[in-house]
Write a structure and sequence with these properties.
The protein has about 220 residues and is mainly β. Helix content is about 5%, strand content about 45%.
Length: about 220
């Protein structure tokens, strides 16, 4: 476990907090060798973002040299330490998203740590949903004037505040919304889509990082029919 030190005033990198236990890998992909591990709440200096990964450094590292990095951590498991998102005002069930924290590996339920959006090569738009365990949600879609892709996660124990409404800059995905019902322990993640396009949706799970990914691309064949 890397002990957090004081945040340094430097002109490179940014101090980020680990949202859940995270593997440090030797390269920027989920099958690379694991070289270390960070625990929830630890702080690191992060820089050289590329491909959805950060190079991470000890807080007292002075040289901006990627060769001195501890390794690489997937961006979805890091959050800016300067930001403390608060849940917006809304219905009582939306305000109840922050409930008791459940430790990793417990049998008490799933934890939603973060939701992030990324534009990827080839016109793909990806939504990364960081969790504390491997979960396969129930996927459905609504095809009408306001098309949506819906992912329902069962047995959810807690959700990080500030994830109810996430505006994005995609050409297909226009907004990401999440709704947590503490009575049923169901978390619903909704992707609001552009009604003028046709879509293909793929899904994947990064097992070691515990990140579920929705990958949207435009269905060109259907479009050209």
């Amino acid at each position: 476990m890397f002990s957090p030190g004081p945040a340094l005033s430097r002109d490179w990198g940014k101090v980020m907090t680990v949202t859940g236990s995270a593997n440090i890998r030797a390269d920027r992909h989920s099958t690379a060798k694991i070289t270390g591990k960070l625990e929830a709440g630890e702080k690191v200096k992060a820089d050289f973002p590329r491909g959805g990964w950060y190079a991470v450094f000890r807080l007292d590292e002075k040289d901006r040299n990627e060769k001195k990095a501890l390794g690489y951590v997937i961006a979805q498991l890091l959050t800016n330490s300067d930001r403390h998102p608060q849940p917006p005002a809304g219905r009582p069930e939306e305000k109840a998203q922050a409930v008791a924290v459940v430790p990793d590996g417990s049998d008490e339920g799933t934890i939603l740590r973060n939701i992030t959006f990324k534009l990827s090569p080839g016109g793909h738009e990806k939504v990364y949903i960081a969790l504390n365990c491997q979960v396969t949600p129930k996927l459905s879609s609504i095809q009408d004037a306001s098309p949506r892709v819906i992912a329902d996660f069962k047995n959810v124990a807690s959700v990080r505040p500030g994830l109810q409404n996430i505006p994005v800059d995609g050409s297909m995905i226009k907004r990401i919304r999440s709704f947590f019902d503490p009575a049923t322990h169901i978390l619903r993640v909704v992707l609001d889509l552009d009604a003028t396009k046709n879509y293909m949706v793929d899904q994947a799970f990064y097992e070691a990082e515990k990140v579920f990914v929705l990958d949207l691309s435009e269905d060109v064949q259907t479009k050209n029919r």
